[in-house]
Amino acid sequence: MKALLLIRHARAGKRGEWRGDDHFRPLDERGRRQAEALAAALRDHTVERIVSSPYIRCVQTVEPLASARHVEVEQRPELAEGASREEALSLVGELEGMGAVLCTHGDVIELLVGEAMRKGEARLVVSERGGLRATRAIGPQS
User: Fold this and answer.
1) CA–CA distance, 82 with 97 (Å, rounded to integer)
2) 96, 127 in Cβ contact below 8 A?
3) CA-CA distance, 3 to 94, in Å (whole number)?
């Protein structure tokens, strides 16, 4: 099935407990399990491109999927924390009509679909009148 899939990065511990640049905060053990589970849960979906925020927790979330599908992870600033709705929607426009996975942060997801998603959650999204709507969740959140 060709679809646009939106993923909120998996769990990466608490921001306040990380003692470095937040761009480099990695997934924790639970987050690694969530990333592996996502790769399995998306097995029936066509994945032609995987596009991620450049933050390490987002890249690590989609690495198991990329490895399983032999697809490179493309890092794009349009999905980085703090990106604007216009930047993110422009990227989505580039990907319409193909099997694409986008991994980003909670703030960007809320700008795109107007609702929150849990960490490690994937959703099918559809275009609607200049925006996006998240439909059903895919896969377990371990």
Assistant:
1) 26
2) yes
3) 13
- Is residue 118 within 8 Å of 103, Cβ to Cβ? no
Residue 2: strand pairing partners = 46
| Tokens representing residue 71 in the block | 């697809």
- pLDDT per position as a tens digit, 5-17: 999 999 998 777 7
Task: Convert the pLDDT of each residue in 25-78 to its tens digit.
Answer: 999 999 999 999 999 999 889 999 999 999 999 999 999 999 999 999 999 999
Q: What are the structural domain ranges in the chain?
A: 4-138
CATH number of 4-138: 3.40.50.1240
Token representation of residue 24: 């480099």
Question: Under a CB-based contact definition with an 8 Å cutoff, are residues 31 and 53 in contact?
Answer: no
- CA 46, distance to chain mean position in Å, is 15
Handedness of CA 109, 82, 76, 27 (dihedral sign): negative
Cβ–Cβ under 8 Å, residues 124 and 4: yes
**E strand intervals along 3-142:** 4-8, 49-52, 73-75, 100-104, 122-128, 131-138
